[in-house]
Amino acid sequence: MLLERMFAHHRRALGFAGIALSLILLHSFAFRLPQSLLDGGAPLPDWPYFFDLLVGLPLLYAVMVRPSWRQWLQASLAIFCAGVLLGAVLIPEPSKHLWHEAVAVRNVLLVALVAVELVLGYRVLRLLSRAVCSREFADDQVESQVAAIFGNGAISRLLAIECRVWYYALVYRRTKTIVLAGDEHFSSHRKDGNQADQLGFIFLIVLELPVAHLLLMTYASPIAAWLVTVLSLYGLLFLIAEYRATALRAISLADNELIIRRGVWGLRRLPLHQLASASSHCGAVKRAADVEIYDANKAPNVVLVLQSGASVPGRFSGEKPLLRIYLGLDESARFLNSLRARMASAGEKPPLS
Asked: Which of 160, 214, 222, 325 could bond to 304 as cystine, CB 3.0-4.6 Å?
């Protein structure tokens, strides 16, 4: 039952993708039928193909996936633009009547989308510029600020991660203060040498970058060399941000909730009434659909068991069922004592262990 709820949205999206691909392949097959089988031997017109792009597939997406109006509009534009691009290959030249007009419309839509994205990107840069000028960085407000610009969805959550990457990698200085919600904070960067391991990976990439660049310049091509180098530099930027955020973004306890943070990734706000028990843990943990692990080495020392039927927001969208959360903390005993005290004062009595 839990897994069915978790994968319902993904099954609908995959089902739509399968039907859309089958429909496009069917059109491609129809375009290539022998002319002797067609009406009067004339080439098959391309208007049925565009009818499906503009009407059929968007309606099917709305019925099957049941998105918000903003998600539906974005998906409809993406379907149309992708369909026009595919039409250059799928539609034979004698059948291209509406395709030439659609290309012009597609270009206008792409320019409009790029303009909108630039405006939104400018607003995100303004958000970061305010953080540069300020001595305090309200970390927990990044998601809400980005969601106010892009809406509450996968794109805004990815951009929130991107904002943290740029801030912690390039903007943060020791003179700045990271403001976190909660009145008790618990770090995780010292457990099992977590932050030291990250520093080792950073040094490895710094050493590998010039060597890989020279080898690719010699044995491949300058384009490949610079492409790999730029991607590696971005990876290095991400690792530096993760290295700093691991120590600065702690797991926190507030009056009625547990706030879980991990590196530059988003935060999980878990109401205490959803917890059934909290206990210490020893050993490795295997990944599972209804389990979340917040420990770099997958050997956590705290396990939280949720109430039966509890669900939490998905990492990027929707809801997902959750049974256990595993944490790796520097001071697991102090965390458990504080958490149990708060749960007991809220009316919960987790078993001791």
From this structure: 325
Core vs surface per residue 144-179: b (16+ CB within 10 A) or e:
ebbbebbebbebbbebbbbbbbbbbbebbeeebebe
pLDDT beyond 70 at 3: no
Residue 263 near residue 245 (C-beta atoms within 8 A): yes
What is the mean predicted confidence (pLDDT) over 84-110? 76
Contact 202, 236 (CB under 8 A): yes
> If you write DSSP's letter for every residue of 283-340 in order, what string do you get?
S-----TTEEEE-TTS--SEEEEEPTT-EEE-SSSSEEE--EEEE--TTHHHHHHHHH
- 217 shares a domain with 163: no
CB of 50 within 8 A of CB of 95?
no
Mean of the pLDDT values across residues 215-234? Answer: 88
Query: Do 203 and 346 form a contact (C-beta atoms < 8 A)?
Result: no
Q: Which residues lie below 8 Å from residue 192, measured CB to CB, with a gap of 6+?
A: 296, 297, 299, 328
Strand 136-138 and strand 177-179: the pairing is: parallel
Residue 159 structure tokens: 């951009």
- Domain with 236, as residue range(s), is 184-248
Residue 116 domain-assigned (yes or no): no
Is the pTM value of this prediction over 0.70? Answer: no
Tell me, yes or no, whether 84 and 11 share the same domain.
yes
Q: Is the pLDDT of residue 260 over 90?
A: yes
Query: What 3-state DSSP class applies to 222?
Result: helix
Instruction: Indicate whether 82 belongs to any domain.
Output: yes
pLDDT in the model for residue 40: 54
| pLDDT-based confidence at residue 52 (cuts at 50, 70, 90) | confident
Contact between 84 and 102 under an 8 Å Cβ cutoff? The reply is yes
State the distance between the two ends of the chain, measured CA to CA, in whole angstroms.
30
| Cβ-Cβ contacts under 8 Å for 132 (sequence gap 6 or more) | 171
What's the total number of domains in the chain?
A: 4
The residue among 284, 202, 286, 208 whose CA lies nearest residue 238 is 202
The C-alpha atoms of residue 154 and residue 156 are separated, in whole angstroms, by 6
pLDDT at 352: 46
C-beta of residue 200 within 8 angstroms of C-beta of residue 341? no
